[in-house]
């Protein structure tokens, strides 16, 4: 296909992706579900599992392999800007405020699911096609552990914001614990990816590059953002030049972290954390958030759905494995966090609410799974199993949260 | 290159494109030039003309042919959203307010440059490699005429806004005349493209499809936007769902008009015109404008620059032809509009100011030239000549405008 033909097709793909996400998102909203649930499901529906099974010819025409680079590159850019915004909203002072409970909840929220995930990988890997042949059992365990420990931090933050829980003990604790967990799981993933290459020099590049990157952001990124923030504040608003400069830096960070092997999403997130909170951060949010989440992010959900093949787990045994992973995920993350919160003196309701929020995997899980699949660490089978787990844990978050909060102020 | 490698490269391209546009844009601003001038020049500098001549290996590594589809598809999306926003800001009531002068200025601003362009094409085509072999002399004349009649409408609107001239007789007249001219030139281009296919059924598809499209926008687009506008106003702001739906429709319109052969930019512009003015239009502008112009639009300038090969016109004769086209462009558009305004009773200064504003070609010319090149209507030589003309007419607009306005209130 010529660039021109691909560009025409890209318009059609965008129209269908956005339109379809709207319809499923509308249905999800009517069932009291957040937008992200609708888009996760829309992705699976447009992929080979449903649309591809019903109309394989049409599906192949709409998403031919030749169009993959355009879709992938664009959704990676959207994801990076989104993770940058997540970093911009990340507030380390919250962690300090509730340090002890937060540390305890988040530690449980990592150790238990990580241990369960690693054990499951160790136990299941010899019997089921979960990992590719070149994945060592050690790497498989680390990956599964990281995948189990993920928290849908942005979704958690949005639920807390929407319910007016920002600043409450519950809200602060959940935000603090969630952000620690996510940061930790991403670090583990970075280690897995670094080790997976097999070649020690590649692992060294990833770890060394990652450290160098954090250092560079701290040494150059922080002062640059401070400078841009001061200019923006003085001007009373964000100019095209400020926004263009910021995005240029984000793209550079995304490129560098992709290049050394620890992925663009980390690079963008770390840069976001380096942005000083206040007027500049709010202006970035104002100008980037809507277009990123309404226009670019749906592309990632659909891309992820194109990789999801429900057909791969339609057998009683494989479905059983999926169910097992789902229960381990809920038990490891949700129950463990609730227990930890309860032990730290939170009420039963509060503890259950925290466990529910921490349990949702959302978009973050999709990111880690797509990286694992893309790098050839996991098979499409395990990918699909964990996508089902991610959707189910995300889907149950809102109703369970409403249930345990019912009757409370 | 794998999709993943292309995605890494795309991050680097974006970082360099955005960063470089910032630097050149900053230099342009220091010389009192608008942003668009900086980005037009940045494109030429990053292309084969300068960067490619100085460091051919590096340039080829940064912009390999395999990366073209991603760059092209993304910049087309950016361009469509931008043209949609231009349409959103298009205000037909302005034309009514100053109908007689506007009609007269815009008519001169089309007929004279069109006639000069067509004559130049007829005279020059047999002697110089301006058009491809399959372009008939009739099509060459029409294309050159349309290319000469273009006005940088968005830039004109921005200058008028920035100088606080909105609502003044000068501002209203220039906006009205500029928008009529642009609409007319695009219609001519649509006709040329329709006729160029050679196959009458293709031309019929373009004309029929275009009419059908306008009808569909009027029948379905207008009520849909009215509905979205009412909802947005009631809610007091734009939701993700509203924005997603709007962009889905824009992408659908872009796809359809690309598919029938009259180009995505028209489709997006016409949809923009169908948006009711007021709160909804302002909300769209607020959420889309910054990210589109600061992030997506630079891609188009660079893509256009990658096609510009200054080396093709480095010979005294070819440079002479370029100079001739430039003079015809300035005389045909700028002088003719100024004379028409003067004949309609505007002051000499006002008339000169209007001529200057109408004369700038800006981004609009780049769009028409890239379409002509992409369709194989014009050669890279004529493309480069007219790029030089576009940059020169855009570059001269601000200083000449300041000169003729000097001393006035």
List keywords for this structure.
homodimer; 409 residues; mainly alpha; Na+/H+ antiporter like fold; 18 helices; globular
Task: State the oligomer.
Answer: homodimer
Find the count of extended strands of chain A (DSSP E, 2+ residues): 0
Major sheet of chain A: size, sense and barrel closure? none
* CATH topology grouping of chain A: Na+/H+ antiporter like fold
Assigned CATH class of chain A: Mainly Alpha
Between the first and last Cα atoms of chain A, what is the distance in angstroms? 59 Å
Mean pLDDT of chain A: 87
H/E series of chain A, N to C?
HHHHHHHHHHHHHHHHHH
Question: Which blocks of ≥5 consecutive residues of chain A have pLDDT under 50?
Answer: none
H/I helix tally of chain A: 18
> What's the number of domains of chain A?
1
Structural class of chain A: mainly alpha
Percent of residues of chain A in helical segments? over 70%
Q: Over the alpha carbons, how many angstroms does the gyration radius of chain A reach?
A: 21 Å
Strand content of chain A: under 5%
Largest interface, C-beta closer than 8 angstroms, per-chain residues: A-B, 54 and 54 residues
CATH architecture assignment of chain A: Up-down Bundle
Shape of chain A: globular
